[in-house]
TrEMBL record:
<feature type="binding site">
    <location>
        <position position="228"/>
    </location>
    <ligand>
        <name>Fe(2+)</name>
    </ligand>
</feature>
<keyword id="KW-0963">Cytoplasm</keyword>
<keyword id="KW-0350">Heme biosynthesis</keyword>
<keyword id="KW-0627">Porphyrin biosynthesis</keyword>
<dbReference type="GO" id="GO:0006783">
    <property type="term" value="P:heme biosynthetic process"/>
</dbReference>
<comment type="pathway">
    <text>Porphyrin-containing compound metabolism; protoheme biosynthesis; protoheme from protoporphyrin-IX: step 1/1.</text>
</comment>
<feature type="binding site">
    <location>
        <position position="309"/>
    </location>
    <ligand>
        <name>Fe(2+)</name>
    </ligand>
</feature>
<dbReference type="GO" id="GO:0046872">
    <property type="term" value="F:metal ion binding"/>
</dbReference>
<protein>
    <recommendedName>
        <fullName>Ferrochelatase</fullName>
        <ecNumber>4.98.1.1</ecNumber>
    </recommendedName>
</protein>
<keyword id="KW-0479">Metal-binding</keyword>
<dbReference type="InterPro" id="IPR001015">
    <property type="entry name" value="Ferrochelatase"/>
</dbReference>
<dbReference type="InterPro" id="IPR033659">
    <property type="entry name" value="Ferrochelatase_N"/>
</dbReference>
<keyword id="KW-0456">Lyase</keyword>
<dbReference type="GO" id="GO:0004325">
    <property type="term" value="F:ferrochelatase activity"/>
</dbReference>
<comment type="function">
    <text>Catalyzes the ferrous insertion into protoporphyrin IX.</text>
</comment>
<dbReference type="InterPro" id="IPR033644">
    <property type="entry name" value="Ferrochelatase_C"/>
</dbReference>
<comment type="similarity">
    <text>Belongs to the ferrochelatase family.</text>
</comment>
């Protein structure tokens, strides 16, 4: 860098032509009217259902200080000395069990969402490129932004696919886009969608998918809404996640026309020794069985795509726990994935956020 800068101290006549070009700028040239870039970002997932691939993914995920807020010098030895030695091997068969033709369900569904939203928006006359990206693992946010810039995108909307805002999920996506921008001289314009926990399209799509299932198969005694958990201290430090979840749960219950006693809310996927949001999902399922509830339908409104936390933890482990405790039937109702009503709702949210940018004018609206 020093040597490259040095030529600017030299008299101008010694500089190679063109003297005014910026020799440091490795950014691709941008076409002024390139398409609008949209990143649909989800958490991330291993590249393969094998222990080494899971270890790589977890190492990146769990060393993010937004996710584990224990001081580094205490946490990193635990992570590398214990968690990354045991957990990958334990998870490998569980990932293998849910693996799909095109890869991990989380990635496959997020890619389908991106392709479908792109189709809808182009059909409405917008000039957009919509891509799926993962906060950890692949395809990375950095690679995805670089690829879209090569196609001429100079404006990016980032949509973290978490309906409820949390620093451990949403904020770290926004941090990462900022980190990518920090490496660029000619920065693109950036916008972000913070949350959509009570968006009428999102709530409507959830309600529609649940109601259609019930219309075809009948309704269980209880609907359990299970959200991903979070350490309690995150909430005490000001994270709005818990409030967001409760607002989603209420909006969904009202949209379904259910009474309060027909619905339970719980929090799953506890990780580590700290106290997390309560009630925990598995003890709730057991308690319901103990109280004589024999049938329960479980929905996970915080997951816009099915993944190990829903397909494995709820649909398999949760079901086993409920049946063992005396329950007769647990049905897991799938995540929104590429449900058409959800794709429309997501496209509407994206389109609203893109307003005012060149190429965002719609034929349909
Ligand atoms: C939906 C929102 C999510 C929040 C909030 C969240 C917080 C959070 N998660 C962990 C630890 C783990 N999560 C894991 C998987 C996982 N988590 C989410 C979503 C949220 N996490 C998704 C969509 C997934 C699925 C990934 C997939 O590959 O399918 C895992 C990995 C699996 C496992 O080891 O059990 C861990 C670990 C923490 C610590 C945290 C908040 C602080
Ligand atoms: Fe998680
Ligand atoms: Fe889990």
């Amino acid at each position: 860098m020093f040597l490259r800068n040095f030529k600017y101290l030299w008299p101008e006549r010694f500089l190679p032509e063109p003297a005014w070009a910026d020799p440091f700028d490795t950014d691709p040239p941008l076409t002024p009217d390139g398409p609008l870039g949209v990143l649909l970002v989800n958490l991330g997932t291993p590249d393969e259902p094998t222990a080494p691939a899971i270890r790589r993914y977890l190492a990146e995920f769990l060393s993010d200080p937004r996710v584990i807020e224990i001081p580094r010098y205490l946490w990193l030895p635990i992570l590398h000395g214990m968690v990354l030695r045991r957990r990958p091997a334990r998870l490998a068969p569980r990932y293998a069990d849910i693996w799909m033709e095109g890869g991990s369900p989380l990635l496959v569904y997020t890619q389908r969402q991106a392709a479908a939203v792109q189709d809808v928006l182009r059909g409405r006359g917008l000039s957009v490129r919509v891509e799926a990206a993962m906060r950890y693992g692949n395809p990375s946010i950095a690679d995805t932004i670089a690829a879209l810039r090569r196609e001429g995108c100079d404006r990016f909307l980032t949509v973290p696919l978490y309906p409820q805002y949390s620093a451990s999920t949403t904020a770290t996506v926004i941090d990462q886009v900022g980190r990518v921008a920090a490496t660029l001289r000619n920065q693109p314009e950036l916008r972000f969608l913070k949350r959509f926990h009570v968006d009428p399209g999102y709530i409507g799509a959830l309600a529609h998918s649940i109601q259609s299932y019930w219309d075809a198969n009948g309704r269980a005694q209880k609907l359990l809404m299970s959200f991903h958990g979070l350490p309690r201290y995150s909430i005490e430090l000001g994270d709005p996640y818990y409030r967001d979840c409760l607002q989603t749960a209420r909006a969904l219950r009202e949209r379904l026309g259910l009474r309060e006693d027909e619905v339970e809310v719980s929090f799953q996927s506890r990780f580590g020794a700290a106290r997390w949001l309560e009630p925990y999902t598995e003890p709730t399922l057991k308690e319901l069985a103990r109280l004589g509830v024999t049938e329960v339908d479980v929905v996970c409104p915080g997951f816009t795509a099915d993944c190990i936390e829903t397909l494995e933890e709820i649909a398999q482990e949760g079901r086993d726990a409920f049946l063992e405790a005396g329950g007769k039937r647990l049905r897991y109702l799938p995540a929104l994935n590429d449900d058409p009503a959800w794709i429309t709702a997501l496209s509407d949210m994206v389109q609203t956020q893109l307003q005012g940018w060149p190429g965002s004018a719609s034929r349909a609206l």
